[in-house]
Write a structure and sequence with these properties.
heterodimer, A: 95 residues, mainly beta, SH3 type barrels, five-stranded antiparallel β-sheet, 1 helix, globular, B: 357 residues, mainly alpha, Nitrile Hydratase, Chain A, two-stranded parallel ribbon, two-stranded parallel sheet, 15 helices
């Protein structure tokens, strides 16, 4: 099998697509359009029992709790997201 | 570690029968509407089993061929009746495990298709769960009827798989026996080893699956395992907001609330309030709460902090301090005094829970 390189590395700032109809459906709504940071890089995980074919590389993305909810604590939410849902955070998106 | 413990003290006897009954209702509907019936429909759609197979099997079924057996309550008092329903639910859940994907290995089927069809991504496809009403007596009578009905369909389905040649009676009988074997709970064994053996702990945190393979723990179909460590700075909590993913193959079943919508919604919206209200767990302000949402192929569990006063304890003793909740982040591992007290009361490791809504 051809190795697929992971595009992002730990610490990269990313933003989740607001919608992506053809992407892996397992991206929950509450993080769509939200900004996060790559926390873990899993690469391509083969899981033939669970799904057909090979999905894009998988990351665990760290979100500040305040980015995804109305709480202001310094807590965080870590969510598994596939690469096609992510793009690099642009300077103008940083606030 | 803080001295505040998250649970109500373990109780030797049930105090709140209604809470137990509500938990059985929740779990039963979850297993019927999400784990079992979507599976029949999936196989009906593909002609693996047909309605007519089910009808024929039903009319020819003999009691002696049943896999699922209905036990009798151990007494007439209400507590015995409640336990009876809880154990009956366990048997039903084991029956669903009996006809899990492994049974129809020869088929080209994947879990993801089943998730789509059962409505994990679109409520339109969800099978409606039953609502429960009434006083305790009525609810218990209803549950008994539901369990009778649901178990019958499950039994017929098992037999239909055999009749159609997707599984042999001997293989299923073997598996059924395994499902009823008692063995030490892997969660306790793993955590106790990690507390005692720093090298193993490092391996477990770095590459979970490999570390477990070396200690001979069965891992089933867990794709990638990530173990997150609780420290004096970080408190981790696990959830699956899309369905109820969890390393079942390693750790067995979750508490019922793990699959409940209110937990899955609230824990990512307001984690501190959620664990405080649901589990009476007050996380110190100087700790960061990290919630892990297992939305894809990674499965998570928490390595809880080793409680105070456990110096010099053997792994076997330590394993008894590990609760299911502590591996999800909904509680801490027990302190030895709490464990001793629970043992003295003859309490199992499942504290009764407040219904979250």
């Amino acid at each position: 099998m051809e190795t697929i390189e992971s595009k992002y590395k730990i610490g990269d700032a990313v933003v989740v697509a607001a919608e992506n109809p053809t992407g892996n459906p397992r991206t929950p709504h509450y993080i769509r359009g939200k900004r996060g940071v790559i926390g873990l890089v899993h690469g391509v995980l083969e899981n033939v029992r669970d799904h057909r074919g090979i999905h894009k590389p998988l990351y665990t993305v760290r979100f500040d709790l305040s980015e995804v909810s109305t709480c202001y604590e310094r807590d965080s939410i870590w969510v598994d997201v596939h690469e096609e849902w992510l793009s690099a955070l642009q300077p103008e998106q940083r606030n | 570690m803080s001295g505040i413990h998250g649970h109500k003290p373990f109780e030797g006897h049930m105090h709140d029968y209604m809470a137990h009954i509500k938990a059985v209702e929740e779990d039963l509907e979850y297993y019927r509407a999400k784990r079992f019936e979507p599976r029949i429909i999936y196989l009906l759609r593909r002609g693996v089993v047909t309605f007519y197979d089910l009808l024929k099997v039903r009319s020819m079924l003999k009691k002696k061929d049943h896999f699922l057996k209905t036990a009798k309550p151990q007494g007439n008092n209400i507590e015995a009746q409640v336990r009876h329903l809880e154990e009956w639910l366990d048997e039903y859940v084991k029956g669903i495990a009996l006809v899990s994907a492994r049974t129809v290995e020869g088929l080209d089927m994947v879990t993801e298709d089943n998730r789509k069809e059962r409505g994990d991504y679109d409520d339109f496809f969800k099978i409606k769960k039953k609502e429960h009403h009434g006083n305790l007596e009525e609810r218990m009578a209803n549950l008994k009827q539901d369990l009778t009905d649901y178990q019958e369909l499950l039994e017929v389905f098992v037999q239909a798989l055999i009749k159609r040649g997707w599984a042999t009676r001997a293989d299923l009988a073997q598996r059924w026996k395994q499902l009823h074997e008692e063995r030490p709970w892997a969660g306790g064994v793993i955590v106790a080893k990690a507390w005692s053996d720093p090298e193993f702990k490092q391996a477990l945190l770095a590459t979970g699956r490999e570390a477990l393979r070396e200690m001979g723990v069965h891992q089933g179909k867990v794709g990638k395992l990530v173990v997150v460590e609780n420290t004096d700075k970080i408190h981790n909590v696990i959830v699956c907001t899309l369905c109820s993913c969890y390393p079942y193959d390693i750790l067995g079943d979750t508490p019922w609330w793990y699959k409940h919508e209110s937990y899955r919604t609230n824990i990512v919206q307001n984690p501190r309030t959620c664990v405080k209200e649901m589990f009476q767990l007050d996380i110190p302000v100087d700790k960061e709460v990290r919630v892990w949402d297992s939305t894809s192929d990674v499965r998570y569990f928490v390595l809880p902090e080793r409680p105070d006063g456990t110096e010099g304890m053997s792994e076997e003793e330590l394993a008894k301090l590990v609760t299911v909740d502590s591996l999800i982040g909904a509680g801490y591992a027990l302190e030895p005094s709490q464990q001793k007290e629970a043992e003295k009361l003859g309490a199992t490791a499942e504290a009764p829970r407040v219904r979250p809504d």
